[in-house]
Design a protein that fits this description.
With 160 residues, the chain is of the alpha+beta class. It has five helices and six strands; from the N terminus they run ββββββααααα. The strands form two sheets. The chain has a three-stranded antiparallel beta sheet, with no helix packed on it. A three-stranded antiparallel beta sheet has the order 3-2-4, with no helix packed on it.
Length: 160
């Protein structure tokens, strides 16, 4: 086999098996960490979730084997765990008394630029800091914790 195997991930984002075809004995119907159902394909387009990469039957160690992808490689739609994390951020932003509805929408709109390197990433970090600065300490801490699960490493360095 040469190419990506399908990964199995629970709907909360816990990686179950990065090699569902090569190692089917590791597959599970439900996550042992949270009990949620597992998936191996994008719900929007049915493309398999990219797992471990194999070349001539040997797995590549360079593949990040424990990190669930945020978006489908085929259609670009968020996976369920990404949608849940974005919803959690949105729910927390509702608790920030100093934000207008427009500022809340802006903060959620910045999330894709905080999840990957884009031309707008630095702007999104600055704007995020300004918006979160309006929150009380406990809400701000919750927002930062929720963002840790979504943000790429370079954004984490800029934020903290």
């Amino acid at each position: 086999m040469t190419g990506y195997d399908a990964a199995q991930i629970c709907t909360n984002g816990h990686t179950i098996n990065r090699s569902t075809r090569m190692m089917p004995n590791l597959n599970k119907d439900h996550c042992t960490k949270c009990g949620q159902a597992t998936v191996t394909a994008c719900a929007a387009c049915a493309a398999p979730i990219q797992g471990a990469y194999y070349s001539d039957g040997r797995t590549s160690l360079s593949t990040k084997l424990s990190i669930a992808p945020a978006y489908c490689h085929a259609c670009g739609k968020p996976y369920p765990w990404t949608a849940l994390a974005i919803q959690a951020l949105s729910d927390l932003l509702e608790c920030v008394a100093g934000l207008s509805a427009d500022e809340r929408r802006q903060a959620i709109a910045f999330v894709p630029d905080l999840q990957s390197e884009t031309p707008r990433t630095h702007f999104a970090v600055v704007k995020w800091k300004l918006l979160v600065g309006k929150a009380k300490a406990e809400i701000a801490a919750g927002l930062q914790k929720a963002l840790i699960d979504l943000a790429v490493d370079s954004v984490k360095k800029l934020l903290w």
